[in-house]
Backbone:
């Protein structure tokens, strides 16, 4: 591996014009594709294998043209204090609004609150339900403007009017904090690499990689039904790993220059050693992201594969374009320790060079006091993980939106007028195709559900034209995200089993609330198999990289500590409300159902980055004859500064997405940023060296039979000695020919 990458780096250095042209052409091609592609359509949300999805599919089949997946809007009207909606002036304004709402070209149906009796008991609150033939993301601006115009005209009559539902769904905005994150990354790069040119290379290549990846996602969004969050996730991860991977190669290149090697030779060695670590670190991230497909939720699978594609691009750019750009930069990228015009650093004197750096001093302390450091690290992460015990999972709805939005105000008005459960109605679907008396079966279903605890209202059954399928709407007395509503869904399903045995009618529970409950359950069921698959594959990969059994095992256990601590922090902020004002979290509530499994996947991949980059230097020193303790110190002397910079950069990039207007992106950004902090600075910088110091030579133990069976990936660059001698011989031959 190291020898191949060594030659690839030298080739890219010599053929820099060709390499740069290829990547610029790919960026241009992807950009043209994104610009000419049709707008993204419906990013369908489906959960194969669940009862809610089965009911949804049945509705599509038996109620054709009902636009079950179309956007909906609830236009909520509230009369002033002391008035009622039925008063002549208010009633006229509501009916005029309903009439205007029904004129849209994309509208399937609109209900009149007075005809459907959708008015609260006190007569002050009512709502009109608007159904569209396309999803919220596909709605034309004219339809959204008509919806808002109708609400504005009703407000002029003195009514309070708010709009709920997904018809006003908008593309999330990340805000200015994303730019701040990139700016922080740039400052860290300048401090670490000592010059604007050297710092600019990782930023430039990362932006090119993300540009290609996100443009490709945009170009394919309509054909593959990719949601807006897919591109945001790819940007987030692509920027972070793209900068880090390039940083490691540029840093190793400067170290090779400091040892007196020519620029081409230094590029080759940097690509062969640091590049090998980049390849295996990238593989762990790709395994974690692609592994999300085992959950069998199309939306999550697409997000994972798209982000993995961006990571692959980041790896390829780091291995080819960075060597090419280093060729262009020439002497503008100085050896490590050389004078920095920007920062005023001069070449170190012999006395200064002999003085150990901070990484060396810290590693020496850990090697002397491994038990103390290990205990502090484990206890600290354990304390941070305590909030996980009260973790509540769910999916965000209008109730989790900021109070400044019309969706949230509509949600609150409906809760005030009709009760908290009105915002999460359950749709019971009955398949009576095999029943002798479908109407009697529907009556029995309704009667049985009425007797259940937690039910406020059960509507009469609505049949399709053939009369073999019916729907019943059930209003709970609890809010959609509560455990009481979840218990009611399970109770209805249990009741349906008995009804099916008596009437040959299959009873299914669906609707947004039931879909969210099934989604959360599917996430919980998939967590352990997913964890076993991803950690297992990465464990085998790391055994080949480190030629050890205990080092990969220690890496996996350290990851579990960091991800639990990060989840604890997420619960404390987004569920308990700690520091919520500082982070712009306006509403607390359940943690998104996909958050645990998503963090397991992404954080594991990123955590292994630091493991590979830091421990490969230790392995390299140990293979070259140092004692285990010395190898730990050597690894930190060469790698701690760069790993610290990489972690700060990754944290800055992720934290930049906390300013997003979408709660899912905000939560992911915070979760990944805090996870990188825990993993890089507590696990990899403290727990890892402490464990390695305690294990000594046992850390690098590998059974002889396994050693023979494993391929030799040569991450340490042992084969570069021969390759370097061959390259020098080639250079000497060329010089003789010139003479």
Residues:
């Amino acid at each position: 591996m190291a020898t191949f990458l060594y030659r690839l780096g030298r080739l890219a250095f010599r053929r820099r014009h060709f390499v740069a042209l290829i990547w610029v052409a790919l960026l241009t091609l992807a950009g043209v594709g994104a610009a000419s592609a049709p707008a993204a359509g419906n990013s369908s949300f489906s959960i194969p294998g669940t009862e809610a999805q089965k009911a949804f599919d049945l509705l599509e089949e038996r109620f054709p043209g009902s636009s079950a997946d179309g956007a909906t809007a609830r236009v909520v009207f509230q009369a002033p204090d002391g008035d009622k909606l039925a008063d002549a002036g208010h009633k006229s304004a509501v009916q005029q609004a309903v009439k205007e709402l029904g004129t849209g070209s994309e509208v399937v149906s609109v209900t009149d609150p007075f005809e459907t009796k959708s008015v609260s008991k006190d007569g002050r609150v009512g709502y009109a339900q608007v159904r569209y033939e396309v999803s919220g993301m596909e709605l034309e601006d004219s339809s959204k403007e008509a919806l808002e115009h109708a609400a504005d005209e009703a407000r002029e009559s003195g009514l309070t009017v708010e709009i709920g539902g997904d018809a006003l769904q908008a593309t999330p905005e990340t805000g200015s904090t994303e730019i701040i994150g990139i700016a922080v990354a740039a400052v860290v790069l300048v401090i670490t690499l000592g010059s604007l040119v050297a710092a600019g290379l990782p930023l430039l290549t990362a932006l090119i990689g993300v540009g290609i990846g996100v443009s490709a996602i945009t170009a394919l969004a309509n054909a593959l039904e990719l949601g807006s969050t897919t591109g945001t996730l790819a940007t987030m991860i692509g920027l972070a790993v793209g900068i880090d991977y390039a940083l490691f190669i540029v840093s190793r290149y400067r170290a090779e220059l400091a040892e007196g090697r020519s620029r081409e030779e230094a590029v080759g060695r940097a690509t062969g050693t640091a590049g090998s670590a980049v390849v295996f670190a990238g593989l762990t991230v790709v395994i974690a992201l692609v592994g999300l497909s085992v959950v069998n939720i199309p939306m999550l699978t697409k997000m994972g594969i798209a982000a993995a594609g961006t990571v692959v691009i980041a790896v390829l750019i780091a291995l080819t374009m960075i060597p090419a750009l280093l060729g262009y930069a020439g002497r503008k990228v100085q050896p490590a320790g050389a004078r920095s015009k920007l920062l005023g650093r001069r070449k170190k004197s012999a006395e200064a060079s002999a003085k150990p750096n901070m990484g060396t001093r810290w590693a020496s302390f850990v090697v002397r006091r491994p038990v103390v450091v290990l205990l502090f690290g484990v206890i600290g992460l354990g304390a941070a993980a305590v909030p996980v015990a009260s973790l509540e999972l769910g999916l965000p709805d209008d109730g989790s939106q900021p109070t400044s939005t019309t969706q949230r105000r509509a949600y609150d008005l409906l809760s005030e007028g009709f009760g908290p459960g009105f915002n999460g109605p359950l749709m019971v679907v009955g398949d009576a195709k095999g029943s002798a008396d479908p109407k009697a079966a529907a009556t029995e279903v309704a009667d049985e559900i009425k007797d259940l605890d937690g039910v406020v209202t059960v509507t009469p059954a609505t049949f399709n034209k053939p009369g073999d399928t019916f729907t019943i709407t059930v209003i709970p007395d609890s809010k959609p995200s509560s455990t009481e509503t979840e218990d009611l869904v399970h109770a209805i399903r249990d009741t349906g089993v008995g009804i099916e045995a008596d009437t040959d009618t299959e009873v299914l529970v669906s609707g947004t609330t039931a879909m969210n409950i099934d989604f959360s359950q599917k996430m919980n069921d998939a967590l352990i198999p997913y964890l076993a698959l991803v950690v297992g594959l990465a464990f085998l990969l790391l055994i080949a990289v480190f030629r050890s059994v205990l080092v990969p095992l220690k890496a996996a256990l350290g990851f579990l500590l960091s991800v639990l601590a990060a989840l604890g922090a997420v619960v404390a902020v987004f569920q308990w409300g700690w520091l919520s004002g500082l982070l712009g979290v306006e509403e607390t509530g359940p943690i998104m159902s996909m958050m645990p499994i998503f963090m397991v996947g992404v954080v594991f991949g990123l955590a292994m980055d630091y493991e590979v980059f830091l421990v490969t230097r230790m392995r390299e020193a140990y293979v070259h004859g140092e004692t285990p303790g010395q190898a730990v110190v050597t690894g930190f002397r060469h790698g701690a500064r760069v790993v610290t910079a990489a972690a700060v950069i990754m944290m800055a990039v992720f934290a930049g997405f906390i300013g997003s207007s979408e709660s899912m992106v905000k939560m992911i950004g915070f979760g990944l940023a805090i996870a990188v902090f825990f993993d890089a600075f507590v696990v990899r910088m403290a727990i890892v060296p402490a464990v390695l110091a305690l294990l000594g030579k046992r850390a690098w133990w590998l059974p002889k039979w396994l050693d023979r069976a494993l391929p030799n990936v040569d991450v340490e660059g042992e084969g570069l000695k021969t390759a370097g001698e061959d390259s020098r011989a080639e250079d000497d031959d060329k010089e003789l020919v010139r003479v």
